[in-house]
Amino acid sequence: xxxxxxxxxxxxxxxxxxxxxxxxxxxxxxxxxxxxxxxxxxxxxxxxxxxxxxxxxxxxxxxxxxxxxxxxxxxxxxxxxxxxxxxxxxxxxxxxxxxxxxxxxxxxxxxxxxxxxxxxxxxxxxxxxxxxxxxxxxxxxxxxxxxxxxxxxxxxxxxxxxxxxxxxxxxxxxxxxxxxxxxxxxxxxxxxxxxxxxxxxxxxxxxxxxxxx
Length: 213
Hints:
39% of the residues lie in helices and 18% in strands. The chain has 213 residues and is an alpha/beta fold.
């Protein structure tokens, strides 16, 4: 079993996603899953696309910017584009932590043979603390959204179906929503809470909901 993950780090937002993905890589290795870590300058089409085609990863996670038609990598180079190369995802379960790709690209990927595609139909967002941008794992403001989103891959690596992984992520969001509404919630809960709600609302699963790696 092989897990391919992209981790660009050319600006703060994707740097956070990259650092928060390290625990997923560690979990995969603990489960004896082969990891193809496309980190920094390796998160580009000249590296990622041949790996998708020749290494046949079972699970693929994209961290990076995106839109309804594209997923991008390092310095926003386009990795997957609707109508161009979605067939590279044939036979794979995809999780895209990337804005808006579930609006159109997800269905196109499924039509071209992807087993399942979990992503977001509009922007994926999180609150970034002002003083800890160099230490993302210490940023408690970012934790709720990033923990909930990480749960997708954690569940898939543990053997869950695509639908179950989506539901587990939704459940973690619900847990954070409850915590952030408590009287002892941190002051920035007023900013973080709407973002957790939003990510939960726009998260989607397409394709075979019973697919598992």
